[in-house]
Design goal:
The protein has one domain: Alpha-Beta Complex (Cyclic Phosphodiesterase, Chain: A). A hairpin with a 2-residue loop joins strand 8 and strand 9. By secondary structure, it is α+β, with helices and mostly antiparallel strands. A five-stranded antiparallel β-sheet has the order 2-6-5-4-7. The protein starts with a strand and ends with a strand.
Length: 170
C-alpha cells in the first residue's frame, strides 16, 4: 500500500526562497525546516492505496483540465494541531481553486473519500514547531506550477513523483 497525494511544486528559485523563509521560521518557532526539494502544495491527500486504487486516481487526474498556476506566496502562519509552519497566498487564487475543486470532484465521483474541510492553500516550511507562528504578511515569492503530480510519500519526509500532468498556459 502506498501513501499518495496530489500536489503542485514551485519552481527551483521559489523553492529555495521558501526554504530560506522556513529556516527563519524555524529560528523563531523551533522545529525542522523542510528542504527546498520537498516544498510542495498538497491539493488532495488520498492516504494508503493499493495498485488498483492508485490506477483509478491516475484516471481521475487525467480528466482534469486547468491553467498553469501563477500566484504570490505572501503570508506565513502555523497550524497548531499539526505543529507545522507554512507559507501561502493571502488572497485566493482562482486557477488554483479551480484545479483543486475539479480534482476533488473527479476523485469523489470515483469513490475516493477526501478530507471534509475547506482547502487552505499552503506549503509546509517547518515541521515539529515548538511555538506558534503568528499569521503575518511576508515579502511575496512568485510561485509558478505547470504540472499536477501524483506523489508517493516514501517515509521520513521523502517523496517520489509517480505521475505528472501538464497544466495549460497562464
Amino acid at each position: 500500500m502506498a501513501r499518495l497525494f496530489f500536489a503542485i511544486w514551485p519552481g527551483a528559485a521559489a523553492a529555495k526562497e521558501l526554504a530560506r523563509v522556513g529556516e527563519s521560521l524555524a529560528e523563531l518557532a523551533g522545529g525542522k525546516p523542510v528542504p527546498a526539494d520537498r516544498i510542495h502544495m498538497t491539493l488532495a491527500f488520498l492516504g494508503s492505496l493499493d495498485e488498483g486504487q492508485a490506477g483509478s486516481a491516475v484516471d481521475c487526474a487525467s480528466t482534469v483540465e486547468a491553467a498553469g498556476i501563477h500566484m504570490a506566496i505572501d503570508a506565513v502562519g502555523s497550524f497548531r494541531r499539526a505543529r507545522v509552519g507554512w507559507a501561502g497566498p493571502s488572497q485566493p487564487d482562482a486557477e488554483l481553486a479551480k484545479l483543486q475543486a475539479r480534482l476533488s470532484e473527479s476523485l469523489r465521483l470515483r469513490g475516493f473519500v477526501l478530507e471534509d474541510r475547506a482547502f487552505t492553500p499552503h506549503a509546509t516550511l517547518v515541521r515539529k514547531i515548538a511555538r506558534p507562528i503568528p499569521h503575518a504578511p511576508m515579502a511575496p515569492i512568485e510561485w509558478r506550477s505547470r504540472a499536477l503530480t501524483l506523489v508517493e510519500s516514501t517515509g521520513a519526509g521523502r517523496y517520489e513523483v509517480l505521475e505528472s500532468w501538464g497544466l495549460g498556459g497562464d
